[in-house]
Amino acid sequence: MKALVISGGGSKGAFAGGVAQYLIENKKRDYDIFIGTSTGSLLVSHLALKKVSKIKAVYTNVTQDSIFSSCPFLIKRKKGIVTIKINHFNVLRNILRGSKTFGESYHLKELIKQTLTEKEFDILKETGKDVVVTVANLSLNQVEYKSIKDFNYEEFCEWIWVSCNYTPFMTLVKKNGCEYADGGLGSMVPIEEAIKRGATGIDVIILQTEVSQFNRMPSLNAFSLLTNMFSFMLDRIEGQNIRIGKFVASNQNAIIDFYYTPTVLTTNALIFNKEKMTKWWQSGFDYAKHKNTKVSPLEEKQ
Fold first, then answer.
1. Pfam families given for it (predicted)?
2. Residue 38 catalytic?
């Protein structure tokens, strides 16, 4: 069985889309399992349907307003440098409303339902492909994997949304008596889960450089410090996921082919810029094409 695993990474998901487009359309990869975390969860349903052009149009046109119903920060551009500052009005309004987070992402929930229709959901279910999204159960202190096979349309769309909610900047969701947030808080790169579900050949798209680089701007305020701290923690989680995935793969005779970003794409993946995301999608496609001029590990196994 073949699996496609896409890590979390916010706006950098555009790069993953480009890589996946090349693998599916040019290399004709036919995956049985699709697993995504956060931004990866937004991609996997459409990739499983092979509706690449549709999800590309979404990713290359998304804006802050497409995601946030209440954006907790302001984007400032000065001398070519992009920084974020607290949107005091929105944050204060959220607090007064009794919200547990600085911002809200209900617009993203609506976008997910507009993009993945109920008819497409039914078609996807009939294919028998296992489409899985990763969520973090904060109440039970565990990572959970939600498969399309186990839910109806409304439920699965909500789990996709939950997987993307990068708290405390986005909505904290309460379901079944538990609080849920972005799956990346526990599993940024769910390679191990793909192997548990029977995958023996796995393409893994990681929205980070393979070698650590200086890729964060100095903290200019409390808000940028908080985002830098979260990014640091997620990087450590990502590294651990990769090491565990490689270990499990070696014990299960599974073959993994990794696709890292060749350069640092952005220092803040919460900023959605149409022009940059369009370039990242194309760079992902070009990178996968260049990488596949050599025989991949999956093809060597065949």
1. Patatin
2. yes
